[in-house]
Amino acid sequence: MTEVREITLHTDDGLVLAGELAPVPTIEPARAAAVLCHPHPQFGGTMRSIVISALFEALPGLGVACLRFNFRGVEGSEGAYADGREEPLDVVAALDAAERAAVGGPLVLVGWSFGADMALAIDDARLAGWVGIAPPLRFRPEQAYDAVGRDPRPKLLVLAANDEFRAPAEIAAATSAWTSTRIETVPGASHFFVGRTERVVTLVGDFLSALPAPA
Known about the structure:
Elements (H helix, E strand, L loop, with lengths): L4 E6 L5 E7 L9 E6 L12 H9 L5 E6 L17 H15 L5 E6 L1 H6 L7 E7 L12 H5 L4 E6 L7 H7 L6 E6 L10 H13 L6
Parallel strand pairs: 3-4, 3-5, 5-6, 6-7, 7-8
Antiparallel strand pairs: 1-2, 2-4
Helix pairs in contact: 1-6
């Protein structure tokens, strides 16, 4: 069983954020390390939201260490919701914390909904790839996704067939020029993936397991 550790994150604009780290439950280095970014803070999103919790609980057993955190203004994290403008600083702070934890393996950003939009706006040299789960691609300016979209590192978009906020066809069209991007649509799923989280975990786990080890 994985022993979850509480951690604190420090943003470049001086905030302290709450987070948790779940290393892999073995003495072996992790096959990968995932930073998990939660859905919209003003609509009940926290690091304990359903999809993030499912990934946080399942991935360590698959050899993937996980770090989840609360964006600014959520629960124990300092600051206030910034309409998506400053939240990318929170994601970078989480990457810093994951790097300090030195759990091993390639480092990947995994975000759901609002968290996916924040993750897909971060083009960081430390990353081996990105996973966007039901990204609306609306919480950052459209050009904010260009750098990641053009980047040759691998990207996985997991879409919900019955997404209430943006149809999979619209996301596929918006990302048609992206490189190294695979799209998987989960049949029967709503934006919240109730009853479909196991499929999300499988898709994300397979993607992370296939990443090459860092040089």
